[in-house]
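Marked as duplicate of an earlier ticket. Keeping the data here for the record.
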Amino acid sequence: MTDSAARFDEVNARLDQIGEQLAQLGQEQTEQRGSLLTLQLISAQLLETVRIQQRNAEADRLAFQAEMRDMRNEIRRIWEYLLEQRGNGHGG
């Protein structure tokens, strides 16, 4: 085998090795794209869940405020009633 033939064999072997490495990198990139798409989907789902929870929390807060307002009004009515009764019970 001549030096030229040996060099061509060496270059061909190296090119085959580079080709295999490129194929492997392509496969890894494909897998990474799939992983990124999965992460994007999960992130979007989590974001939507957080938004729903925020809306629910706001609705709960408004409902609680309304209940507290009703309760204060009821306490005020009871207090006023008791004040009237006390006044009537002392010779009124």
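See parent ticket for discussion. The two ends are 130 Å apart (CA to CA).
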